[in-house]
Amino acid sequence: MDCSEKVLCGTGEVELDPNIVSEEAGKLYAELQTVIETHGEGVVESLVPTFVWVLEVLANCKAQLREREEEAEREKAELEELLERYQAEKALRKESQEKYLELDDQFEQERRAMRGREKERELRERDLEKKARQQADQ
């Protein structure tokens, strides 16, 4: 039987916690003892199977709750691990992007420097050709 997170008891709706089974079993046993002392065993004979069933359901709910809590803890740990990995990968991506931008800047500076040297070379070449023509003309 699947059990919800809340159970109904004599005092109203209560959150199910791991200690509820033993507490409720103790309360039921005390009440049964009182009824038996007052009215005799015959009065509670038909109720005992129902009480046993209720206690079994409570025990089952307790086990399910414990499993859910353990699963929630595992999922929380897994989520934290995934978050840490995400943060690490995000930091690595940022670092690699910064390195890429630095390399791109260096590449662009080298390209500009090469263009500058190429223009200087072309100017010197034209200058030398001009001087060579002047020399040839003389």
Automatic annotation (TrEMBL):
Q: Name one Pfam family in it.
A: RH1
Residues annotated as coiled-coil are none
Which superkingdom? Eukaryota
Where does the RH1 domain lie? 4-92
Q: Where is this region: Disordered?
A: 111-138
Checking PANTHER family in the record gives: C-JUN-AMINO-TERMINAL KINASE-INTERACTING PROTEIN 4-LIKE ISOFORM X1, JNK/SAPK-ASSOCIATED PROTEIN
Which protein, by its recorded name, is this? RH1 domain-containing protein
Identify the taxonomic lineage of the organism of origin.
Eukaryota, Metazoa, Chordata, Craniata, Vertebrata
